Amino acid sequence: MSKKPNIIWLIADDQGDRDLGCYGHPTIRTVNLDRIASQGVRFTSAFVTTSSCSPSRASTFTGRYPHSIRAEDLHVPVPEGVNLLPTYLKKLGYYSASVGKFHMGDNAAAQFDKVDGKIGNWKAVLEDMPQDRPFFLAVGFNDPHRGYQAGAIDDPADPSSVVVPPYLPDTDQVRGDLAMYFDEVTRLDRVTGEIDNWLSANGLRENTVVVFFSDNGIPFPRAKTSCYDSGCRTPLIVRWPGRFPEGAVCDELFSLVDLVPSMLGLLGLDIPGDIEGIDQSALFAKPFGMGAREFVHLETNWHDLDDHVRAVRDKRFKYIRNFFPRQMLTVPLDVLNSPSYKSLLAERDAGRLTREQMRLFMVPRVSEEFYDTLDDPWEFTDIHADEHYRDRLERLAAECDRWIAETNDVDPNARRVDLMDVFSGKVRREILGGPAPFRQE
Questions:
Q1: Which of 94, 176, 368, 436 is 20 to 30 A off residue 80, Cα-Cα?
Q2: Neighbours of 342 (CB within 10 A)
Q3: What pLDDT shows up at residue 422?
Q4: For every residue of 237-266, which 3-state class applies, written as one string?
C-alpha cells in the first residue's frame, strides 16, 4: 500500500447543505454519509463559488474562480492551459480517474487517466486502478438532479414527513416534489455506502481521504443559480482515519475553491501562483483552529438565462450586488417546470404567498442586498438601507470591489446572448402567464 493517501471526491449534483441527517435534518435518510461524518470532520460554513453545475465544478477542480478561467457559464469547458487537480497530483505519481457526471469538457478530461461517464461503473473503475500507485477518484453522482420520478427507491419518503423551507409554500405539490428529491438523496447515500464498504473490503479505507460535497444547492426556486445560502452553501465532509479527528465540527469559512490547494497542502506540494483558493488543510486535522478565510466570494452568470450577480459573505453578513436589477431573480428551466414552481405560481395568483415568498417575483430587484445571516438565516430581511449596518455593508462592498478587480472579472455589459436566452425567456413568459421581465434591454 502506498504511503501517499488515496483521495476520493464524492460529488452530489444539486444537494442542499441542510439535507443530511448529520446536518440536523429530522427525516431524510442518509445513514452512510452520517456515519462518514461521525468518523471525520463536518464543515458547517462551506460554500461553492457559483450555484451552477459546470462552472462550480470547474472552479472546484482548478482552485480558481469561474470567471477567472473564463468558464463562468453553464456548459463552457475548462479552457486549454488551465490545470486541474490531477495534473498537480501527477508529480507524486497519482493515477486519476473520474466516474459519473463530469461536465467540464475535453481539456479537463485529458488531464485524467480515465474518464467513465456511467456512475454505475464506479466499482469497475476502482478495480482497474494500478496497484502500485496512489489514486484520485472523482465520483460525480447524477443524484439529486432533476427530473424526478416516483420509484427512485423501493421505500420512498413520505411527503407528510418532509421539511418545507419557508421560501416555498407548504402545499401537497411542493411536498411531493421534495419527497422525490429526498429519495434521490437517499439513493446517493446508499451508493456512497457501497463505495465505503468496497474500500474496507479491499483494505483501502485507512489510507483514503474521502471528501463529500455538492456542486450547488437544491434545484428549487430561490436556491440553485442564486447567491443566497440555499443555492451556494454546501455540505462538506472530510475523513482520513487516524489522521483527522472523528465526529468533529468545523464552523470556519471554507470555499470549494480551497479544495485543490488544501489537497496539495495536505500532500506537501507547493501551491501554484495562479491558484486563487487558500490552503486550509490545517482545518482537517485541527478543525477547532482559526481558518485562513475572512470572506467567501460568490457569483452568478449565464445558466440557461443570462444574469450577473456578485456577492461577498463573512461568517455573519452577506452583501449581494445585482447588476441587472430590472430582471427577475433567475430560476433554471428544470426548476421553472417543476411542481414546486407551478404550485408557487398558483399560490401567488390565489394571494396565499407570504411576503418573503413573493420576493421571488419582485421586479425590479434592488441593486444591493445585505443580510445578517445570524439573525436572519433564510435571508428574508434586506437591511441594506438600514444606517445601523452602513459600516458593515461598506466593508463588504469594498471587498467585492477588490475581488472583482483582482480576479479580472468579466464585463457585465458584455452579456452572453444566444438562442437559449430567447427560448428560456419565451418559456418563462408562458409559465408566468404574461410578459414578465427576463432580461435587461
A1: 94
A2: 16
A3: 73
A4: EEECCCCCCCCEEECCCEEHHHHHHHHHHH
pLDDT digits (tens, 9 = 90+) for 324-336: 998 889 899 999 9
On whether the CB atoms of residues 298 and 232 are closer than 8 A, the answer is yes
CA distance 215 to 232: 9
Residue with grid cell 469561474, as numbered in its chain: 66
Name the CATH superfamily housing domain 6-290: Alkaline Phosphatase, subunit A (3.40.720.10)
Q: 271 in helix, strand or coil?
A: coil
Low-confidence ranges of the chain (pLDDT < 70): 1-2, 419, 433-441
Cα angle at 438 between 377 and 148, to 5 degrees?
65
The one-character DSSP state at 435 is -
**For the chain, domain boundaries:** 6-290, 297-432
The conformation of residue 276, written as its DSSP 8-state character, comes to -
CA distance 185 to 245: 26
Q: Which residues contact 245 (CB under 8 A, 6 or more apart)?
A: 40, 41, 285, 287
Task: Say how far apart CA 265 and CA 272 lie, in whole Å.
Answer: 11
DSSP-assigned letter for residue 350: T
- Residues 48, 50, 54, 58, CA torsion sign: negative
Do residues 326 and 363 make contact, with C-beta atoms less than 8 angstroms apart?
Answer: yes
Q: Which amino acid is at 156?
A: P
* Bridge partners, residue 164, by sequence: none
Confirm if 317 and 397 have CB atoms less than 8 A apart: no
Q: What is the distance between the alpha carbons of residues 312 and 322, in angstroms, rounded to a whole number?
A: 12
Dist CA 422 CA 438 (whole Å): 10
- Other CB atoms within a 10 A radius of the CB of residue 397 amount to 16
d(CA 363, CA 127): 54
Strands (DSSP E) contained in 280-439 are 296-300, 309-313, 317-322, 368-372
What is the rounded distance in angstroms from the CA atom of residue 244 to the CA atom of residue 42? 11
Rounded CA gap, 217 and 212, in Å? 14
Q: What is the CA radius of gyration of the chain?
A: 21
> To 10 degrees, what angle do helices 339-349 and 419-432 make?
50
Helix axes 339-349, 172-201, angle to 10 degrees: 160
> How far apart are alpha carbons 175 and 18 in whole angstroms?
16
